[in-house]
Each structure stands twice: as structure tokens, then as C-alpha cells.
Amino acid sequence: MRLRSRILACASSLLLLSGCSIGLGSLGGDADTGGAVPASTPSTPSSSGGGGIGGLIGLGGGGTAGARALAVGDEPYAVRVGASILQQGGSAADAATAMYFALAVTYPVAAGLGGGGICIVRDPATSHTEEFDFLARDSGGGGAYAVPGNVRGFALMQGIYGALPWQRDVAPGEGYASAGFPISHALSDRIATLKDVIRLDAALAAEFLDETGQAKAAGTIVTNPDLAATLAIVRTGGPNAFYGGNLGARILAYSAQQGGAINVREFARYQATRTAPQAIQLGNQYVLLPSQRTGAGAFSGALFETLQRAMATDAGAGDLQAAVVVAVKQALARFHVTDLPQDLGATGFAATDPSGQAVACAVTMNGPFGSGRNAQGTGVTLARAPSSGPSGIAAAFVTPVIATDSGGALTLAGAAAGGPNGTAALGYALARLSRGEQVSRRSDLRSTGVAPYDTINAITCQGGACVALPDPESKGLGASGDTGR
């Protein structure tokens, strides 16, 4: 009970943006596989492997030389979707949006329509970077279900920075839900440990458990017709069709029946926000993190500022891994939680395009499969309300990052999610880049080690070449969307 109280107290502080953070396991692991791989079409996925103007932060010159179309994330089929969108001439924002809607189907443990997240976008046309905040929120009426933000957030970002029609970005996820997709190793690893959660909801159980109640194996083809129908409505009607009309009414009715108490007005009027990310200088790099108004920004800002100070010492300059450990320990000394749920239900992904646009996003359901409940007949799994339990602290560790060198050239676009280990791993990668060390293989990232669902996925650029690097301990994918033109 004491541990639970400490977790809840810390979660409440983060939700109030006071800068609470969590204990960290050691960084470890050194698995090595390659970087980016060629993309296939979404139908044949492979399971391998500062201040600025108007709320924007200026980052100097363009830095598009050697830019490539790349996508990276935790779930391979969704990454293939992003790469295919890039091949069709889509922007990085299109690719990130398409990856999200595919993840909502192929990786609903972390990216359902009922959740929320944060994205950071670098615009090469203006050399500015801005942040989109759309985290799932507590309902004013209380209850276990969050007010979802993902659909509104990705629609806002895609409407500003997308190059393709909205419909084209939503369609691949809809196709997976309708025609079916094979469960990836990335998803099967997580559902194997979540049978007790899945079996409590008829829709989740039907999709992911076999007739004996065991998790379906990797490679098993599954469909979700209800979610396909919902995505068809979102594809044709946009975000307003999700937050209003018959679909919105069905979600609200289910919440009311289950005591969720989501207010009709707050659901219909949910708005994503655009703001300036916080900027921290790390060596010769300018690192853009979530703003301090979010729990994620409070935690990552504290960690990176402490890392910056540690690197300025002789000891930190000599041993980056030790400097990261020192930075994490000092950052966490402000906080008193020593444990977390193993799986916070979160994932991060990133994309770049040939124009130099870069997008990094991280989303969460505030626990695996969120509340563990589907709004009947919609395929929408509702996220857990942030204040309803320890998993509500998940939003403190969704850490999209974009970094550039002193000339404004992109050095990293990536995201950590799932816990403090991922954020620390991002710090380690950026510290290495700031020293001019090569970060071009998966093994050049530090694994998230003892926390299996903390992940880092990054696109790094050095010497005019960029490479997509999924977490070295995960079963994610980095894929190229270059067309060869």
C-alpha cells in the first residue's frame, strides 16, 4: 500500500506539471543488427527484425543535404506503412500519421484510438520546430476512462504538415483491420504477458486469445471489423466524425454504462494544442524536448539538464555511460518513487522525408490496452484515466525529441516511451552524437535493459547520411521510403 501511495502521489504531481519522476533501472544490452531496410507495401509487411515566432523555435539553416525518407518504430507492420506513404510522396507528417493509425490496429496495446500523445515536427521550409500536445485527459466527471486525444492531435498535425490527402494516411490501418494482419513478434511478446487483461473484454479476447484462452502466436492472422468500420468513418469524416455524430455517441454511451462519466461537452470539444518545445543545448547540439507544461517535459528536461552538467565535468566527458547514470540519479533524486508497472502501454516512432521535414511522436494508453475495455461495437479501446492508477504516470515518459547541430542540420529525430529508461537512452545517444561518435547501428544505442517495454527508436544523421535505428532489445523496424528518384 505504501508503494502504491507513493506511485499515485508522484503521478498526481506529474499530471499537475510539477516535475515528478521515477526510479530508473540500469542501461544495458548491446545487441547488434543493421539499420534501415527497404520498405515493402503495406499489403505485404515483413516482421524482420531558442524562441521563435508564433510559438515556434528557430533552428537556423535548412540542413537538407543528404536527407532521406525513413521511418522507425516498435511494430514492423506499422513502420512498413509509414515507409510506403513516404514512397508515395508523403511528408514525414503523413508517414507518422499513417504509422499511428496502423499502430492502432497492429499494436493496440500501446496506440489505440482511445489514447493520447505528443509529437514534435521540424519544418524545413521555415527551419522551425513545434510541438503538438494531445495527451488523453481525465474526465471532469471522474471515472476510469480518459478523454482521448490521438485522433484530434494527428489530424491537426497532418492538416498543417501533410502532403497527401488525410484519407490516404488513415486507409492502411483500416485495411489491416478489415482484411487482417499477422500478429508481429513485437505484439505477441506483449500479449503473452497480458492474458489476464485481455480475457476481461470480449472484443479483445476474440481478437487476441485462442479457444483455450492462450495468447495467439506470432503470425496468426487477426481482424477487427468494428475498428475497420470506425476507421472508415474517421477516414471519410475526419476527427469531427470521431468526436461527434453516431460514433462519438456510441463511445459516450458505453462510457456512461460503465460508470466512465466522460462529459459529452469535453469529449466533443477536445482540442490538441500547438506550442514551442523546450530547447536544451547538449554539446554542439540543440535538443528539442516536450515543453515544461507537460509531465514528459518536466522529467526529460530535468534529466537532460543534469546530463549537460555532468558532461561538463572531467569524469562525465571521459565516460558518457557513467555521465548518463549520474544524470539520471541526480534527476531522480528529486522524486521518491522506486518502482513502476512493467508495461505502461506506450510506444514511440519517427519519420523523415527528402525535404528535411522530421517528425517524432510518442503515444500511450496509460497502461497496456489502457482500461482494457472496448466501447462496444466500435473497436475503440478506451485509455485509462491518468489519475486512476499507477499506469497514469505513463505520459511522463513519452519523449519525442528532435536535435540539430549548430548549423541547423538534423542530427536525430526519435522517441522514447514506456518509462525513464527510454528517456535516458535518448540522452546517451545524443551525448554520443555531441562528441562526434558514430551512432549508426542498433548497438550504438543503449538498450532499455531491465525495463522491457521502455523503448527508444531513432533516426540519426551524420556526415550527410541518415539511418533508422530501432531499439536494440526490441523487435521493431527501421525502413527506407526512398523512391530512388
Detailed description of the structure:
The protein is α+β, with helices and mostly antiparallel strands and 485 residues long. 36% of the residues lie in helices and 18% in strands. The protein contains 17 helices and 19 strands. Strands 1, 2, 3, 4, 5, 8, 11, 12 and 19 form a 9-stranded mixed sheet that branches. α2 runs antiparallel to α3 and α16 packs across α17.
Averaged pLDDT: 84
Total count of helical runs of at least 4 residues? 17
Taking all Cα atoms into account, the compactness measure Rg is 20 Å
**Strand pairing plus helix content: what structural class?**
alpha+beta
Measure the end-to-end span: 60 Å
The beta-strand count equals: 19
Short description:
By secondary structure, this protein is α+β, with helices and mostly antiparallel strands. The protein contains 17 helices and 19 strands.
Descriptive keywords:
485 residues, alpha+beta, 17 helices, globular
Layout: helices, strands, pairs:
Layout lengths: L1 H14 L21 E2 L18 E2 L11 E4 L2 H12 L4 H15 L1 H4 L4 E8 L4 E7 L15 H12 L4 H14 L1 E2 L2 H7 L3 H4 L3 H7 L12 E2 L2 H13 L1 H5 L1 H13 L6 H5 L4 E3 L2 E5 L2 E5 L5 H17 L2 H5 L1 H13 L13 E7 L5 E7 L9 E2 L4 E2 L17 E6 L5 E8 L2 H15 L20 E8 L2 E5 L7 E4 L5
Parallel strand pairs: 1-19
Antiparallel strand pairs: 2-5, 3-11, 3-19, 4-5, 4-12, 5-8, 6-7, 9-10, 10-15, 11-12, 13-14, 15-16, 16-17, 17-18
